[in-house]
Amino acid sequence: MSFKAAACALYELRTYSLRLDRMAAFLRETERLFHLRTQQSPVLGYWTSELGGLHQVVHLWPYESLSHRASVRAALASDTTWLQEYVGPVLNPAVLGQDNLLMRPLETTSVTAPTGPGVTELLQLSLTGPESEWSPPLLRVAAEVGEATPDHTLVGCFRSVIGPANSAVLLTHYPSQEALLKAAEDRRLNTAYVDLLRHVRTAHSKLLLPHKVSLIQ
Question: DSSP assignment of 56-98, as one string?
Answer without folding.
Answer: EEEEEEEES-HHHHHHHHHHHHT-HHHIIIIIIIIIHHHEEEE
